[in-house]
Amino acid sequence: MDALEDYVWPRATSELMLLPVTGLECVGDRLLAGEGPDVLVYSLDFGGHLRMMKRMQNLLGHYLIHGFRVRPEPNGDLDAEAMVAVFGSKGLRIVKVSWGQGHFRELWRSGLWNMSDWIWDARWLEGNVALALGHNSVVLYDPVVGCILQEVPCTDRCTLSSACLIGDTWKEVTIVAGAVSNQLLVWYPAAALADNKPVAPDRRVSGHVGVIFSMSYLESKGLLATASEDRSVRIWKVGDLRVPGGRVQSIGHCFGHSARVWQVKLLENYLISAGEDCVCLVWSHEGEILQAFRGHQGRGIRAIAAHERQTWVITGGDDSGIRLWHLVGRGYPGSGVSALSFKSHSRPGTLKAVTLAGSWRLLAVTDTGALYLYDLEIKCWEQLLEDKYFQSYCLLEAAPGPEGFGLCAMANGEGRVKVVPINTPTAAVDQTLFPGKVHSLSWALRGYEELLLLASGPGGVVACLEISAAPSGKAIFVKERCRYLLPPSKQRWHTCSTFLPPGDFLVCGDRRGSVLLFPSRPGLLKDPGVGGKAGTGTGVSGADSGSGEGGNAFVGWGPVSTLPSLHGKQGVTSVTCHGGYVYTTGRDGAYYQLFVRGGQLQPVLRQKSCRGMNWLAGLRMVPDGSMVILGFHANEFVVWSPRSHEKLHIVNCGGGHRSWAFSDTEAAMAFAYLKDGDVMLYQALGGCTRPHVILREGLHGREITCVRRVGTITLGPEFGVPSLMDPDNLEPGSEGPGLTDIVITCSEDTTVCVLALPTTTGSAHALTAVCNHISSVRAVAVWGIGTPGGSQDPRPGLTAHVVSAGGRAEMHCFSILVTPDPSTPSRLACHVMHLTSHRLDEYWDRQRNRHRMIKVDPETRYMSLAVCEFDRPGLGPLVAAACSDGAVRLFLLQNSGQFLRLFAETFHHKRCVLKVHSFTHEAPNQRRRLFLCSAATDGNLAFWDLTTVLDCGSNALEPPEDPGLPYRLGTPSLTVQAHSCGVNSLHTLPTNDGHHLVASGSEDGSIHVFMLAVEMPELEEAVGEAEMVSQLRVLEEYSVPCAHAAHVTGLKILSPSLMVSASIDQRLTFWRLGHGEPTFMNSTVYHVPDVADMDCWPVSPEFGHRCALGGQGLEVYNWYD
Amino acid sequence: MGRTSKDKRDVYYRLAKENGWRARSAFKLLQLDEQFQLFQGVTRAVDLCAAPGSWSQVLSQKIGGQGCGHVVVAVDLQAMAPIPGVVQIQGDITQLSTAKEIIQHFEGCPADLVVCDGAPDVTGLHDVDEYMQAQLLLAALNIATHVLKPGGCFVAKIFRGRDVTLLYSQLRVFFSSVLCAKPRSSRNSSIEAFAVCQSYDPPAGFTPDLTRPLLDHSYDPDFNQLDGPSRIIVPFVTCGDLSSYDSDRSYPLDLEDGSEYKYTPPTQPPISPSYQEACRLKKKGWLAKEIHPQHHPISRVDTLPQPLATPESHTLLAPEMEDN
Fold this sequence. Notes:
heterodimer, A: mainly beta, 3 helices, B: Rossmann fold, 8 helices, globular, enzyme regulator activity (chain A), cytoplasm (chain A), WD repeat (chain A), tRNA binding (chain A)
């Protein structure tokens, strides 16, 4: 083969990579992270902020990095320059870098040296490197020249699972090898009398009952730590390992992980371990757990590093995230819980309720009706007032806002409400609102202008009181503004309230789980019927009692909009307005995002909190723009961050049924609760944030199953898209307007993620994640792509409809809106609106005649999706789903995605259907025809003509066997036996001569390509009412049996003469079409294992094509056309 | 999710339990035999990495019971519950003593068939898993060179990942026919397949040596390229006919043959897995727990170090920022 062919067009180059972080190392204030074959160099400052300095690309070719060894400098100065040995798999490369004063330069890199066996450990021995190899041998290697100086095997050539090299010279070099027999072998390569003469192990140490994955030696204390498959970490007292014959003594056997332990590292005072359970544990050398760091997602933590001077631990996960944790301060900035010693002879009575007015004043009320103030700074109790009317039953609620506005409210069982200015309790105002018990109290604050107090009385009546203060500040005025009426229910009272900006409406939640919208000044509305309907005293809800308007028994204003039972029977616990959305939390373990459009509440997205936390109590926005969730998890109060998946604060308070209060500011947070007749207080600096830092966000916790590109957004220079500062690295075409591709990925971790991939910077931003699925998500399909303002609007943006499906026969439909947002790093923001969902077994549950029907197996998985769009407006689209129970199901989406129903199905394949793909056939003077192709595990392709399925009286469908069941799809137009086993990829492309190229790739590594002709009966034959039936015919057919060495999971026909395929064997291969059999052009080795899907799209003439590969990570390639 | 959900999801898992096989992999060997007639004329067979023993069960049923001279030897590092008609060796396949012991059971005769269904516990890091699987296969091949008769057959599990072509080229050195086979009972989603190597024919002058591990080949610019057109991809054969059950399909509990479903407990639960102790401790709540701050009185708020502000960082992959 000549050299010219080596550079055959097109050539794919890797553009960005998101892979598990498999190597981490701190060098001074630099952090090296290994991701695939690349090294990411970051600089860390004192605040723990990370700044990316450089991505050193392709250091290890097709190998993955498993470790770095920085050559120790005699003067100990690594701040300016360093020599780094990078190793992984069988590859080793040395690179010399200069990184002083924030400038990074790669000075020199050696060749990529390939070893004959796996490298488990490397160690600098002066100028050379010692390597511990896969079958228990040690090699002394000259990394500059690239040659073996000496190779010494052990007499026991067992396979190793880890190794650790100790010593600084070849004479003293010691290897501790972890054999597959679970033993540790200690031996001395320099004991070899002659080259290649095997050396017998000096010591064999048994203890673990599983394979050893990692070890760490602490020379100063003579300790060795090992991490194992048996989920334990062992600490051994070994003394100086370089001295043969020493005693090895097990001094600690630490069980703390709930899965295999991948990594262990000994520090002077700590032992760090991390594993498959995504937890990083900090142990003392005595085997006591000091801290647990939780937050990584997915299959575990793969790499750990420590910055001993700053006492930081840095972890790298399988989710490609990197996090920094603080070793000291026990992680929690909280000062713990302190009892406020309320009980005293001077303070009779027992406490009934507690509240926090701002972050430094606490109020509590006793069963004698006495109100006490505790100042957290002065730390003393003070009685504000005592009122016998508020004995035994008393509600207490402090006003929101900075320092609680200086107000609190009390309410009793006889309908009396007292508003107390905390500084001048004598100026308290009492009002009797109801003839019966006040069930709940809540405040609503609008800026500094309007403060409302809502009190729920009997019969679902909510009194709305307006509170204002005299200019002197000495007196307050309480005026009843109006009354609202809640929808009827057994426990008919409201639980929370807030102003909807700008302030014309109040959003309330009630005990029945409904979210309600009330006008804040209903009296100003001329006609009550417009804004809200008034209710009568008959107990009918406001919504359906318009007849009672103006009657004598006017009770209150009904809601203008209701989302009934949104949070289920346990009730709504909080409402918050932020950034144009309303957020509600409930005791159903979920939080909702809503918005108000046209005066109506509309749910946008439901999100679940962390597992097991079913009682959400509130939601807070923190200064960095993310939110935190407050809730009760068993008997603990938890502040949980959905962004970092961390429990930021845990207070063992005993549960949410007691009286509690929470307040937070940017500087501090406080949580108070009653326990054992006293007030307990938990305080923490830094509000709801915690000084653990996400250095890099993770993507998906588990494998990506599907990748779909939605579209491209062009951002002009006014959006200030960051571009590469280094002009040498500028690729042609990366100047000019910023093109950002929007890509959707879905994963086994049950989430769907919207990503922004700018073409200019080689970066990736996760815009949003949708977490509605209960099981893994296997496929997404996108349709209806447009711009927010319609085709006439030049403003950048993107809208699309998305349907996702996966395990447990579950399907979700949502819309996305991507708009420019200069405040985010990607300059884009993505708004998601959930439209509808569908589950096969749920569908069965709703059927009236279900006793006569076979319940669809709820374990059915949807393997693939295709959207079939009809050319007639208002119709469809149809979503075709490949199902694991052997069916191809067609779902009809109506009302622009708001309604999804099972329309038709076929069990033609009788085997697990793996792929569906839809395409259209257009020919002059003919109706546009819509085809669906399905493929199953037997290698069979079936083609269906769906053009007329939605027409009345169409014979494309057979009527169902039973009314209520879906239609049955008739026999396929054509079946093709393309492969001997499962079809894992499928694509079609229309050709210029009116045919279609069909390509499929299979589990057996083969690719099948054929030309499909669509023939319509001649017009003369088709006269009359008879429906035209298309005939499909295979013209040319070619098969490439050994195209890949594994499943072909990605396949795209780019043009009638070019096709690209991707496989689990990690090759991206181009094929030339159109001259008989497809011919191999070239292939590129990529780094994502287990690739499940690929999508390719043209970006621009200057930028060429882009291709995203999703599997155990994500990689984007590009090539020029 | 009840105990039947796995039965619904995986028909072969369920059939294996119902037919008394210790693992669903028994069907894989049966289907491989259907395609290649592996057991024809075989009197001496070796099952390497035999635990939990489903392949040994198949071998003993197909070969062991056929009279004198028919011997099945099963080797594994771990203990295995006994199987009638199978000689068990608890030993390491990388040791020469194990090879000698096998030959001893065959009364000095070499084996006709060596099978290996062993796989390491996958770690999730693909390159490590593929390497470990390859080493297991090569260790099996290495011991097979000691015990296999010329013309004999070797079947072993492979992971079809990035470097599987290197294994193919290594196997080609020892066998005149190497095929990649996938039984229908192996799932589409799984990367496992079986290398079926027939006609053992070691290169001239080859002397078996267990003291030296067989290493996998490296890429060769001429005949086994990393990314060029000439990679050694061996022919792929799908085993088992289309009427057999589909391992990817979810079946209702009442199968079409009319048999009524009855839950069957697993035939042979694992013997002392490595995580046993950890599970026992967890069950009793004896795993070490972190010390919560509340359990320790921490004095005053003002002694705590000033916390750090979390930077805004939703970026997965930041662009490089160089200020030179």
